[in-house]
Amino acid sequence: MSIFDIKMGWKDLIDFYEKLKDEIEEAKGYDYSKNLWIKGFQKLVKMTTISLIIFKLKNGDYIHIQILPEVKPKITLTREDIDKISLWKHFFKTNLNWKELNLLKKTKQQLPSKFTLQELKEFLENLNLENEEDNTARKTLCNKIINIIQQIEKKI
């Protein structure tokens, strides 16, 4: 008998179950809110308070799966702080040139009072700028924001 410990989110767990379901003899999960074991994978999928699922395989092995919460990073920025060099340099570890900072200063009043990095990127992508220099700064800034978002997602 072997025991395998795995950590994954619900989406990956459902895919994993579909591939393995013919080999599973029993599936049960622990509902931590009720301090209760629930049997049957279909019942478990409908519940949100399951923290651990155990598959007993027909060959006698067990697979313990810890359910990880599926979260997306969400950092909220404010209009007042968006053009501060220290925010970009120290918090996001990104250097902005004066053209990019100037673009943020010019457009910050068009932004809502609070927004995410993704919303800032989308706002910048939809700006219609006649000045070629501003358009170049906008494209570069959007690429930097995409890189920041990807770095944050990797850390989480």
Mind explaining what this structure looks like?
There is one protein chain. The chain is of the alpha+beta class and 156 residues long. Helix content is 42%, strand content 24%. The protein contains six helices and seven strands; from the N terminus they run E-H-E-E-H-E-E-E-H-H-E-H-H. A hairpin with a 4-residue loop joins strand 4 and strand 5. Helix 5 (117-125) runs antiparallel to helix 6.
Describe the structure concisely for a colleague:
By secondary structure, the chain is an alpha+beta fold.
Features:
five-stranded mixed sheet, 7 strands, 6 helices, about 40% helix, alpha+beta, single chain, about 160 residues
* Strand order, sheet with most strands: 1-5-4-2-3
Q: Distance between the terminal alpha carbons, to the nearest Å? A: 34 Å
Rg from C-alpha positions?
Answer: 24 Å
Shape: elongated
What string gives the helices and strands in order?
EHEEHEEEHHEHH
Sheet-strand content, in percent, reads: 15-25%
Largest sheet: 5 strands, mixed
User: Helical segment tally?
Assistant: 6
Which spans of ≥5 residues are poorly predicted at pLDDT below 50? none
Mean pLDDT: 86
